Amino acid sequence: MRTVHQLASIFSQLQTVTCSIIVNMAQLWGGRFTGKNDPIMEAFNASLKFDRRMWQADITGSQAYAKALARVGILTHEERDQLVEGLDKVGQEWASDTFEVKPSDEDIHTANERRLGEIIGTVAGKLHTGRSRNDQVATDMRIWLREQATALLTFLKDLIGIAVARAEREIDVIMPGYTHLQRAQPIRWSHWLLSYAWNWHADAERLEQLIKRINKLPLGSGALAGNPFNVDREFLANELGFEAVMPNSLYGVSDRDFVAEFLFWASLTMVHLSRWSEDLIIYSSGEFGFVSLADAYSTGSSLMPQKKNPDSLELIRGKTGRVFGGMSGFLMTLKGLPSTYNKDLQEDKEPMFDAVDTIGACLQIATGTLTTLTIKPEKMKQSLSIDMLATDVAEYLVRKGVPFRETHHIAGRAVRLAEDRGTQMDQLSLDDFKQLHSAFEADVKDIWNFEQSIDNRCATGGTSRTTVEQQITFLKQWLGTSA
After folding, report:
1. Across the chain, how many H-helices and E-strands are there?
2. How confident is the model over 74-93, as pLDDT tens digits?
3. What sequence ranges are listed for the domain Argininosuccinate lyase C-terminal (predicted)?
4. Per the residue annotation, which of 5, 77, 96, 180 is the catalytic one?
């Protein structure tokens, strides 16, 4: 017969084990473990501080899963309704910012299920039947990113729309075009605007294609081997707005190509925004003076009161490196992972969240900057110089039947002759030109017309009025049909 001391010792041991079980029940993976985690490890392992952003996606996915379980008899209709309604209440707490996070809430899935149990009781424990956090988190991420990517597509089209509207309104403004940051040939300001609109159009097409690849359902893959209760995955896909189910459960839980591809898309789009910003930073400088940024998108100097700094554009340019860094870092996380799910994949969310936030802000700031930008047409025109028509001299001779390789050298000699005389080419006489080649005639004087030079570039994609109008028409139609 046991002594009182022995019974007390056994009771104490039972209390310890019971406490440990209770602690680990709060963690979805409890049961196997009886030892307590290092508190630092618990914090290191937890992701709720950042994945809480997916609360709505997690609730939506769980409600669909409850309906799927009811369809195969795992849940009664009453239990299904309890779960769906209880999850609505959890969502209301998140939406009203009254959700109370507990120390045991390891991630958004744990937090929502824990709170669901507090609201509706033990039936909450049936929700995770046949489901793993592996397929759950992959589904949540796809739902969340699909919605965010759709919003980014709208921001991008808004920016394109402003560029197209300005191009149409300011089609008669001409400016120097540059290569190597050296004045090259005259172009329309609208043609410059549209060059970036076409970059952004390609970005929009890539994002539309990416949204289709994001929109594949992993739920029903289980931890890795599939769902043992034959849940209807096509029903789940339809319920959650997915176009198809992922055809392999191992692939379903481990694939993060959609995150990597989104980070690449964001990086490339940011590169386009950065180059556009760099042009406008240069054009807004005192040395150029082609454009002026609105006060709303500029700042001053703490020391020099005359300064007006293009901070909006510099921040876009700077944040490009941030987005690219997230992409390169995540690819290094992916490259050595064995199949299927590994905790390394917890590193997928922060770069994804950060890229969405960063590019979303940059697109809206770019739109505001371009909308309010003031252009200086006279300053642009004053920056044109006759030597920018040297190619037109060569083209003039081509039209007279002289081979281009020969005309290029002749035009170069005309440039040198004008430089040697300290004048411009349009000041050279007809005799001067005839000494260079006999094909020059009195109509050589017609070359010195910037507008004519621009409108000579009339092949599709050129800077002539007609071809710029064609670009505007196409982009307006695309914006109208793809809105």
Report:
1. 19, 6
2. 999 999 999 999 999 999 99
3. 388-454
4. 180
> What CATH number does domain 386-482 carry, 3.20.20.70, 3.10.400.10, 1.10.40.30, 2.60.40.420?
1.10.40.30
Domain(s) of CATH 1.20.200.10: residues in the chain? 133-220+247-382
Three-class DSSP category at 309: strand
Q: Is 274 helix (H, G, I), strand (E, B) or coil?
A: helix
- Evaluate whether the domain defined by 37-126 bears CATH number 1.10.275.10: yes
Q: Is this prediction's pTM over 0.85?
A: yes
Q: How far apart are CA 480 and CA 473, in angstroms?
A: 11
Give residue-wise pLDDT tens across range 308-320: 899 999 999 999 9
301 is catalytic: yes
Element (H, E) at 473: helix 465-482
Contact 214, 149 (CB under 8 A): yes
User: Average of pLDDT values for 194-211?
Assistant: 98
Out of 301, 385, 438, 482, pick the active-site residue: 301
- CA-to-CA distance for 253 and 235, rounded, in angstroms? 19
Tokens found for residue 324: 């690219």
